[in-house]
Amino acid sequence: MSYDYNTCVIGAGVVGLACAARLASRGPLLVIEREWKFGQATSSHNSEVVHAGLYYEPGSLKAKLCVEGNRLIRDLAAEYGIGYQRCGKYIVAIDETEKVYLEWLKNNATASGATDLRWVPLDELREQEPCVRAVAALFSPSTGILDSHGLMAHFKTQAELAGADFVFNTEAIGIRHLPPSTTAGIKGGYSVAVRDSYGDESEIICAQVINAAGLYSDRIAALAGMDVKALDLDLRWTRGFYYTMEGGQKFHIAHLIYPVPDKSLKSLGVHATIDLSGGLRFGPTAEYMKEQTEDYSFSNDGLEQVAESIARYLPGVKAEDLNAMMTGIRPKLTRPGQPARDFYIREESGRGLPGFVNLIGIESPGLTAAPAIARVVAEMAQSPTAARD
Ligand SMILES: Cc1cc2nc3c(=O)[nH]c(=O)nc-3n(C[C@H](O)[C@H](O)[C@H](O)COP(=O)(O)OP(=O)(O)OC[C@H]3O[C@@H](n4cnc5c(N)ncnc54)[C@H](O)[C@@H]3O)c2cc1C
């Protein structure tokens, strides 16, 4: 039996695409995507912020890969003309208690390698953002905004130029580990069962699998035989809503404005984000979902509270100013009320699945970190020679 592909990447979101771009030159690679096009799930339902790595535990994958990804995205954007603006962000405290958090954040960011975060005199904040109210503020010059679709299209082109194949409308429905066999002439690998949109099923034999299935990455790991519940790797989804502002840029915001987030980092707080076309959006909210169904419909429940939370730092914002815009769903390993957990990125030889790489819980800052995640995956993944000998 021979391999159809050296590597199967499951999922064509920004992470799967970044991995495909990195790995395609090493040997035949297939990306399997259940949607009709790349980037239809979480990768196109987010704030498109290139984070600087301020909030995460120093030394964690989130912190390290965010700082590295921030730099890589800036370089990629410059080299390939991907839409990107290093607009900077203010993190604002509206009372003395929140100011204490900013002090902690400054130290945390420095320990994580995000060394350019600085205190801003209030007259400077007033000059730059006259509509914002704060008793103290930090400024992160290396936070930016990105055309996330442009970044994904770039990764896809790079992967294709290196020979990668893509199948869309095709879902991975089963994974069987093939142990090494001299009689079958195979060093070991995987059979990935797939079903297309006509209901036709087939099987792909490959040496290694990259599980980049986002919201479903825990289920893909379970298909490969991992007991994700026992391993505490089953995902909880949180849904967040975004709003645009009635009457456009009534508040003339020129930078990203973030409030102080809650301790569990369930979200970074309902922030004000500008986009590359100068539009202003607020969000996302964050609620754990009772039913884990990919439901992107919008609800205006809680709109008054959302407006109140924005008005704390942008006085005058009212519920009637806000319009429904978009819904995003986060794949979280963090349990309600528990401290934030890190990305799970691991090659699973230790669990009897050599060449199976799991990427689970890739929530924010996953867009920023994607190119750095791909570098780590490329280090973990086998070389084609090792896989095929
Ligand atoms: C509300 C919100 C705001 C965010 N804001 C930011 C931000 O400003 N900055 C930042 O850095 N990060 C942000 N993030 C995080 C970032 O969007 C994600 O970390 C990133 O998009 C994850 O990419 P992914 O490729 O892992 O997942 P996805 O984009 O979800 O891709 C996974 C793909 O796998 C496919 N798939 C699933 N199951 C199967 C299967 N069985 N077979 C085949 N294909 C399958 C899916 O269709 C999907 O296309 C935000 C996330 C959310 C939800």
Describe the structure in your own words:
It is a single chain. The protein has 389 residues and is α+β, with helices and mostly antiparallel strands. It is 26% helix and 26% strand. It has nine helices and 20 strands. It has helices spanning 14-23, 61-80, 96-111, 122-128, 148-161, 217-223, 303-311, 366-380, 384-388; strands at residues 5-10, 29-32, 49-50, 84-85, 89-93, 118-119, 136-140, 144-146, 165-167, 170-178, 189-196, 201-211, 236-245, 256-258, 271-274, 280-283, 287-288, 322-332, 344-347, 356-360. Strands 1, 2, 9, 10, 11, 12, 19 and 20 form an eight-stranded mixed beta sheet that branches. Strands 13, 15, 16, 17 and 18 form a five-stranded antiparallel beta sheet that branches. Strand 11 (189-196) and strand 12 (201-211) form a beta hairpin. Helix 1 (14-23) runs parallel beside helix 5, helix 1 packs parallel to helix 8 (366-380) and helix 2 packs across helix 8. It is elongated. The two termini are 13 Å apart. Mean pLDDT is 93; it is low at 385-389. Bound molecules: flavin-adenine dinucleotide. The site of flavin-adenine dinucleotide has 41 residues, from helix 1, strand 10, strand 18 and helix 8.
How is this structure best summarized?
This protein has 389 residues and is α+β, with helices and mostly antiparallel strands.
Number of helices: 9
Ligand set: flavin-adenine dinucleotide
Low-confidence stretches: 385-389
Helix/strand class:
alpha+beta
Number of strands: 20
Query: How large is the radius of gyration?
Result: 22 Å
Helix content: 25-40%
The chain-level mean pLDDT equals 93
Principal-axis shape equals elongated
Distance between the termini: 13 Å
Main sheet attributes: strand count, strand direction, barrel closure: 8 strands, mixed
| Share of residues in strands | 25-35%
SSE series: EHEEHEEHEHEEHEEEEHEEEEEHEEEHH
